[in-house]
């Protein structure tokens, strides 16, 4: 399936390390969301990723794996997102793990199914920030520089502003969007219901709803209708 992420306004992100009933998964996959991303910051394994993929494949929704560990790379997804954490203090999260993966799989990869994301993680309390040792003490000018780096210097198709668990500053997100010439602006973090979904959708190109699926499914599902009316 050839996917065009430029058409995506809303995606759900599901964590293989979290429990989700069959009924809840069906509701997510048939909600009208543009895609389902599978990924997480910790506890992601080959086995739980395979299991979640098999369950999602009962439905027609596009399914994307956001690769956080080489050991959890599972074939069969429509697309593979490769995060590059631009504000990590560790080169391993920018080029190190990517180099090791390419040493092992580079000759057999289908590059049409692979897409890199330029990540900036902005919540210092999040698991993702701690894991990647992200420098979250950033000014607007810093974030603008990362956006230009992702968009113009590296020509990445996605610039992802990740607040991971808290609702971010939509004024900052709104300032970033006009700077991007070809990258699509993804926003994720703290979207718990339709009001925040609408605010985020006004500031970013694509919103990512994750934790709400596990915390309050009804409110999570309402985020789709809120921005697709």
CATH architecture term: Alpha-Beta Barrel
Task: Enter the CATH topology name.
Answer: TIM Barrel
CATH class: Alpha Beta
Overall shape: globular
Which runs of at least 5 residues are low in confidence (pLDDT < 50)? none
Instruction: Give me the side-by-side strand order of the main sheet.
Output: 1-2-3-4-5-6-7-8
Number of strands: 8
Which features characterize this protein?
single chain, 229 residues, alpha/beta, TIM Barrel, eight-stranded parallel beta barrel, 9 helices, 18% strand
Outline the structure in words.
The chain is an alpha/beta fold. The chain has a single domain, classed as FMN-linked oxidoreductases (TIM Barrel). Helix content is 36%, strand content 18%. The longest helix has 14 residues, at 140-153. The radius of gyration is 16 Å and the shape is globular. The chain starts with 9 loop residues before the first strand and ends with a helix.
Describe the SSE topology.
Layout: E1 10-14, H1 22-29, E2 35-38, H2 46-56, E3 63-66, E4 79-85, H3 96-105, E5 114-121, H4 127-132, H5 140-153, E6 158-162, H6 170-176, E7 184-188, H7 194-203, E8 206-209, H8 212-215, H9 217-228
Parallel strand pairs: 1-2, 1-8, 2-3, 3-4, 4-5, 5-6, 6-7, 7-8
Helix pairs in contact: 6-7, 7-9
Structure summary:
Helix content is 36%, strand content 18%.
